[in-house]
Amino acid sequence: MTGPSLGGPVHRSGRLIVSLDVRHAEDALRIAGAVAPHAAGLQVGLGLLHGPGPGVVGAVARLAPVLVDASLHGIPSAVAAAARRLGEYGARWVTAHALGGVEMLEAAVRGLAEGAGGRRAGVLAITLLTSLDQAGLAAAGLGGSQGKVVSRLTRMAAAARAEGVVCPVSELGVAGDVAPGLLRVAPGIRAGGADRQDQRLVADAGEAVCRGADLVVVGRPVVDAEDPAGAAAELAAAVDGR
Q1: Threshold 0.85, pTM exceeds
Q2: Pairing mode, strands 41-44 and 164-166
Q3: How far apart are CA 242 and CA 238, in angstroms?
Q4: In order of start, what are the domains of the chain with their CATH numbers?
Q5: Predicted confidence band of residue 231 (pLDDT cuts 50, 70, 90)
Q6: CA-wise closest residue to 129 among 62, 64, 197, 210
Q7: List of residues 6+ apart from 211 with CB closer than 8 A
Q8: What residues form DSSP beta bridges with 47?
């Protein structure tokens, strides 16, 4: 698979990002085709990137803007190279860990812009994983409350000229107060009573919107549904107030 033509979609209105949480490219493209009319974008994560490969990004980008959840974290030169390549494949957004520091985030921003070649593209800085609760933060040696961690890392993201931040729904207000110009992306969305798997900081889509999410990432509730298109349409209506 190769990257998309530069005439592909670069922006849609709405908040819903559907995460293609499947193992195989064929399944990802089938679901992408069904849900794309209802979504502001589609997410390609580590499973697809390290399974079928980054060419999936180019194929999905023909259908909708793609958020590549690459979770980049490394020395700046390596991160810049990876972001550049993802931009060449057609990524609209690429995630990178804010814990890598301002220089690393700046490298990601620079690399992605170079790879995008004039298309609209931006880095989303991951502040706090939804699998890390307060006890997890302490065990990892990150001092302070969840809010303080998100506040510090959001400031770094703004300094590096990232387009936005990824943070738990509970901390969206903190991110908005610190850097109101940044896009706020909410992961860890689950319906009431749904299996949390390894995520601890979860919320439903409605709460995410109420707390200020600009983009709401939903995976299993859509891709595991009997009718993914119908599930996506219902969620889009809910988060966009249609």
Answers
A1: yes
A2: unpaired
A3: 7
A4: 16-240 (3.20.20.70)
A5: very high
A6: 197
A7: 169, 170, 172, 173, 186, 203
A8: none
